[in-house]
Write a structure and sequence with these properties.
Layout: H1 2-10, H2 19-37, H3 39-47, H4 52-76, E1 84-86, H5 88-101, H6 108-131, H7 134-141, H8 144-166, H9 177-196, H10 199-202, H11 205-220, H12 247-275, H13 281-301, E2 306-308, H14 312-319, H15 324-338, H16 341-347, H17 352-362, H18 364-374, H19 385-398, H20 413-416, H21 419-433, H22 436-439
Antiparallel strand pairs: 1-2
Length: 451
């Protein structure tokens, strides 16, 4: 089994699914990419006060470039069915800088120009450092505990966001009962199909949930009548602002860029367990090169830099469809969507609550992956700190308003207010500075703690 899966990773194994099954799996990947991508340019466009036509164009650019980089990664990059797209850590940085710009007397155009410079530099550094083998250093630093902490925090961060979206949480802090009820029903449907449904249906539970949920939403709550604004030029240089030398933003971008490189290690090290194979140094370097190149393109065209989605593991474990051809098919559809303004407008009307509901279920698999990652270590009353401290610190920061960190300098406040980043950094420091083997003794009562 492991050899067959490994062969599929390399593209040398026999095709064991029909073209129609791969097409359905590709459509499922398409919706996975869409729900993970569509909100990013919309939220950043609003934060930067961009005109509607530019936001519409950035949505198309995001679809096109995300589809292209996923195809290239699966074909000649890391060669797994793993999504590469606008990275969440960059999203947090961008929104954080926009929200704090006024308090430090900086215009949004200056922030956008500083981010453009930082994105260009970070993408270039990723290509160079990846080619020099920096990925191997990160692999040595990222022990199973660090990867487990990263996966736990990522799962918590994503599911918190999905839960808020699926219950229709409004600006006043109240939920929409109708939206919440339908979302819970869709989530239960997806979960039941995965747990109790025939395998041929379970593999497409997410796709079924989106289609059924979208139809039910339009029938029960009424169709969304909003339309995407007419898009401006598909490619316009530096729509956020001309590159500048805002050193605080550039320093923060470089730091986040280095942190983003760890996503590649976490994603590929985790997905290796599913495929039963090892990722060669050459594939790491090609993956970094592609992510870095498209991150530099994102700087030119007003998009967030790219990064591997460790959350792809949740989809792979939910569907059990590992073929790269499915990802390539979905990515091709997604890229074509970016070239069709009318289609982009149609799919942008998909209820976000339904997308959040199905992703909430899909990402539950990541929690199991995280537990399996750290389960190999036995814990006592002392060594439990190596997991508990970074995870609970990260969750605590996630539940602290970003405004609480506004007193810190602008180039560190977005980092300090990011629970995922701070938790992973703390775990890295603890794992590489403390000799846990000396503390790996029985607890005072002589009992070990189960992982």
């Amino acid at each position: 089994m492991r050899n067959r899966i490994a062969n599929h990773s390399e593209g040398t194994g026999p095709l064991n699914r029909s073209a129609s099954m791969i097409g359905l799996a590709g459509l499922q990947w398409f919706f996975f990419m869409f729900t993970n991508t569509v909100v990013v340019p919309l939220s950043l466009g609003a934060a930067l006060h961009l005109p509607p036509e530019e936001i519409a164009a950035s949505l198309q650019r995001s679809f096109l470039l995300t589809g292209l980089v996923c195809i290239l990664q699966a074909w000649i990059g890391h060669r797994y069915a793993v999504m590469d797209g606008p990275a969440g850590v960059w999203w947090g940085l961008g929104l954080g800088l926009c929200s704090s710009a006024q308090s430090v007397g900086m215009s949004l155009t200056a922030v956008g120009g500083g981010l453009a410079t930082g994105f260009l530099l970070s993408g270039f550094l990723m290509i160079v450092l990846g080619a020099l083998g920096f990925g191997q250093l990160l692999k040595r630093l990222f022990s199973p505990i660090v990867m487990g902490v990263s996966l736990l925090l990522l799962t918590v961060q994503l599911t918190m966001n999905f839960f808020k979206g699926m219950i229709g949480l409004q600006a006043n802090g109240q939920m929409d009962p109708k939206v919440a009820g339908l979302s819970v029903a869709v989530a239960l449907l997806v979960g039941l199909i995965q747990l109790k449904g025939p395998k041929r249906f379970a593999n497409y539970a997410i796709l079924i949930g989106i289609i059924v949920g979208w139809i039910a939403n339009d029938l029960w709550l009424g169709a969304n009548q909003s339309r995407q604004a007419a898009a401006g030029p598909l490619f316009s240089l530096f729509p956020w602002g001309a590159p500048n030398l805002e050193y605080g933003i550039i320093v923060a971008s470089v730091i986040v860029g280095l942190i983003n490189m760890t996503n590649t290690v976490t994603a590929l090290s985790t997905v290796e367990k599913i495929y039963g194979t090892q990722t060669s140094d050459a594939r790491y370097k090609r993956s970094y090169a592609l992510t870095g190149l498209f991150s530099m393109l994102s700087a030119l065209f007003g998009l967030l830099p790219f990064g591997l989605f460790t959350s792809s593991v949740g989809l792979l474990e939910s569907t059990k469809i590992l073929e790269r051809s499915a990802l390539i098919a979905g990515a091709a559809m997604f890229a074509l969507l970016g070239l069709a303004p009318s289609l982009s407008g149609f799919f942008s009307m998909m209820p976000s609550s339904i997308g959040n509901a199905v992703l909430f279920v899909a990402y539950l698999q990541m929690f199991g992956t995280a537990l399996r990652t750290i389960r190999s270590v036995e814990y006592n009353s002392k060594t439990i700190f190596r997991v508990a401290l970074p995870v609970l610190l990260g969750i605590s920061i996630m539940n602290t308003p970003p405004q609480a960190f506004a007193a810190f300098p602008m180039f560190v406040s977005p980092l300090l207010s990011n629970g995922l980043v701070m938790g992973v950094l703390l775990s890295l420091v603890m794992e590489n500075s403390v000799d846990w083997t000396k503390l790996d003794t029985a607890a005072p009562d002589g009992k070990k703690l189960n992982a």
